[in-house]
Specification:
Elements: H1 5-12, H2 17-21, H3 52-75, H4 80-83, H5 86-101, H6 110-129, E1 140-147, E2 154-161, E3 173-179, H7 188-195, E4 208-212, H8 223-238, E5 241-251, H9 253-264, E6 271-275, H10 282-288, H11 297-302, E7 321-325, H12 331-343, E8 349-353, H13 362-378, E9 386-391, E10 398-399, E11 402-407, E12 414-421, E13 424-430, E14 432-440, E15 449-452, E16 455-458, E17 466-474, E18 477-480, E19 507-511, H14 519-540, E20 546-548, H15 554-559, E21 561-564, H16 572-577, E22 583-585, E23 589-592, E24 595-598, E25 602-610, E26 613-620, E27 644-648, E28 660-665
Helix pairs in contact: 3-5, 3-6, 5-6, 6-7
Pfam families: Peptidase_S9
Protein name: Peptidase S9 prolyl oligopeptidase catalytic domain-containing protein
Keywords: Signal
């Protein structure tokens, strides 16, 4: 994303100015040279050669740690607490395996670091076998690992554990997230090594600081976004974290992450402190990248998923202290947010480092710290008396005590404003068809009545101090109840699309074993399958789960989004459900609505509730939808396809598209196929 992204990360590790200044060649930085999709440089870049003796030593070390890992499940089968710690070992193995197998040693100095990591991993494994886990109670710099629900990978994160942490005490601690800047060389080896050497930019006294890896270099979007949520869940499981004092921080690419978390999860945190970065896609690419942005109509709609500026209203719910250097081009991010906030009557607290570029001004940094600490001292209000919330998708649907469960139309603004006064909760909505309220009641917070857009409800006495109520809109009027019958398909949280949403939860790539209906389409699907698996590893740092169609089990269907490759002739799982999908695919043609495309040259790409288990998705012929060109700038890493598309495979895949997109669109709120009107 940034000319200064990699140096910024190195600086956070405390490396010398000369090294920082030379960390990234100018030719590897973003800017106009990276605006050509015909000349796309490799991300991650190609590594340096590993001397044969070093390679042999690393392979031997990997074999040793693999042997220890393989023995742990049996050794710890009667010790579930220790069994749960295997990812704390596995992260060291995976880090070195990836670097060696995929040519991701970017500097010769990383080789001895990798050797040291293997020794650490083996030491942890031996401790576990002996019933010990000293790192779990250590203070200072600690690297932890968790098992991701998405692909089963062990993912690392760094912690700064405060000196006053006592595992035997009940004291709860503040936790600050720190999302790192862009680093195209930020392999797992470099991340883990760095997190064991530097505390980073901010280390509040008595606070845990959590450094997510974020699954590499994606501005904590998609699987990188889920990484933050999984890191938090893991930290809360193992450490006493105060839910009312969780802080969002980040700079550069990490500042972009901070903006998107602030507006999409406004009541998860008590404060946000974004620095630099970007807050939306089109304006940033124009200003920073000097790129002429020409989106399709559906790409433009999909910008709403990660454009923090579109949800600037939500900063009402989260005290935010933004920082920018006065002469930093990425001051643009906070300027855009301030402009959009002003439109809805909000004023951004924006501290500016005088005559400063892409870094923190020392004195202004002190001001940021003081303001954030003052907010944290008050803590997050668990029951705010007033909320203002906007969303464009049910993926982001919660603000304090209101959860939006249905939209009139996806990718258009949906508003909920709420106020609690004198025991009455009043809501006004726009483009919302279903919602839920959660009132945690006590002697000081009793809600006896609810009014939604003027319709009043008397609430029953809360059971055990809590009340959960579901409401829906029917014929323009609000009524109690969910309003959704069993077995009826509707878009809902976690089942709302677009295609990329399937890769933010557990998924399984299902490889065809049969004969394709048409050779050309079959060859295209095989190529795209290989691309999806390889690039999941490169960009989201996990081994994509893969099974043959003949090996898919009932458990897979029950618990995973199935990504089906091929066509109804080649993929046996797809053949089972083909007649229950909103498109019809035969040897002769692919029919979408009232139009049929030549089956010899066209393929279907889509996401839809799995007819075999409508609680999960089925995806046809797609991995995540941004491609090589988009790796060059994080603001480009947004969804590139909606809910469905038809691909003309006579046009070869490019760094931007999987082939010529001849039709694409969104399914309706009932997962129905709508007219392809380009709106």
């Amino acid at each position: 994303m940034l000319v200064f992204g990699r140096p910024r990360y190195l600086a956070s590790l405390g490396l010398c100015a000369a090294l920082v200044a030379s960390a990234v060649p100018r030719s590897a930085a973003d800017g106009p040279p990276d605006n050509s999709s015909e000349k796309v440089r490799q991300v991650p870049p190609k590594g340096v050669a590993v001397p044969p003796a070093d390679a042999a030593e690393l392979k031997a070390g990997l074999a040793d740690i693999k042997k220890e890992l393989d023995a742990l499940p049996e050794a710890l089968k009667d010790k579930p607490a220790l069994l749960d710690l295997i990812p704390d070992v596995e992260i060291y193995y995976t880090a070195v395996r990836y670097a060696l197998d995929y040519d991701e040693f970017f500097n010769a100095k990383e080789i001895p670091a990798a050797k040291a990591l293997l020794k650490q991993g083996i030491a942890r494994a031996k401790d576990l076998k002996e019933g010990k886990s000293p790192w779990t109670t250590a203070t200072g710099l600690v690297v932890r690992g968790y098992r991701s629900k998405i692909d089963g990978s062990a993912q690392p994160y760094g912690l700064v554990v405060p000196k006053n942490y006592d595992p035997k005490a009940a004291t709860k601690h503040r936790l600050d997230f720190w999302w790192h800047g862009r680093g195209e060389n930020l392999s797992e080896v470099n991340f883990i090594d760095g997190r064991q050497k530097s505390s980073g930019d901010f280390t509040p006294v008595g606070a845990f600081v959590l450094h997510p890896y974020g699954r590499y270099c994606n501005a904590n979007k998609f699987a990188g976004e889920i990484d933050t949520l999984e890191c938090l869940a893991h930290a809360k499981k193992h450490y006493p974290i105060d839910d009312s004092r969780i802080v969002a921080r980040g700079f550069s690419m990490g500042g972009a992450a901070c903006w998107q978390f602030a507006v999409h999860y406004p009541t998860l945190f008590c404060a946000a402190a974004p620095g630099a970065g970007f807050s939306e896609t089109p304006e940033f690419l124009h200003v920073f990248q000097h790129e002429k942005v020409e989106p399709t109509w559906y790409e433009k709609k999909l910008w709403h998923m990660y454009n923090a500026s579109d949800c600037a209203q939500n900063i009402f719910d989260l005290p935010t202290v933004a920082y920018s250097g006065e002469v930093d081009s990425q001051k643009q991010a906070a300027d855009v947010m301030a402009r959009e906030m002003k439109k809805v009557g909000l004023e951004l607290t924006h501290l500016i480092g005088p005559k400063t570029g892409h870094s923190y001004h020392p004195e202004t940094k002190k001001e940021v710290i003081a303001k954030v600490d003052a907010i944290v001292a008050k803590g997050r209000d668990p029951f705010p008396k007033e909320i203002k919330f906007v969303t464009y998708t049910l993926l982001y649907n919660k603000c304090a005590w209101v959860t939006v469960t249905g939209l009139g139309k996806h990718w258009e603004a949906a508003h909920v404003n709420g106020e609690v006064k004198n025991g009455v909760a009043t809501l006004t909505t726009e483009n919302v068809t279903r919602l839920q309220v959660d009132f945690k009641q006590d002697a000081g917070h009793v809600v006896s009545r609810l009014a939604i857009d003027g319709t009043e409800f008397t609430l029953p006495a809360a059971d055990a101090g809590a009340y959960i109520g579901r409401f829906h809109k029917a014929a323009g009027k609000w009524e109690s109840g969910s309003g959704v019958s069993d077995g009826v398909l509707v878009k809902k949280h976690g089942l709302q699309g677009p295609i990329d949403d399937a890769f933010m939860d557990k998924f399984l790539m299902v490889k065809p074993t049969g004969t394709p209906l048409n050779e050309k389409v079959g060859a295209w699907a095989a190529t795209e399958f290989g691309h999806a698996v390889a690039h999941w590893r490169k960009q989201f740092r996990g081994d994509a789960p893969v099974k043959d169609d003949t090996a898919v089990t009932d458990d897979d269907i029950a618990h995973a989004n199935l990504v089906l490759w091929g066509d109804p002739g080649s993929n046996k799982v797809l053949a089972k459900i083909a007649d229950k999908l909103p498109v019809k695919w035969t040897k002769d043609g692919l029919t979408v609505g009232d139009k049929t495309y030549d089956g010899k040259t066209h393929a279907a790409v889509l996401i839809y509730p799995n007819p075999l288990n409508p609680k999960k998705y089925v995806v046809l012929n797609s991995g995540f939808t941004f491609r090589e060109y988009d790796y060059l700038n994080n603001a480009r890493q947004v969804p590139k396809l909606p809910d469905y598309a038809v691909v003309d495979v006579t046009s070869p895949p490019t760094p931007r598209v999987p082939g010529k997109i001849v039709r694409a669109g969104f399914f309706g709120e009932a997962w129905d196929l709508r007219p392809d009107d380009g709106q």
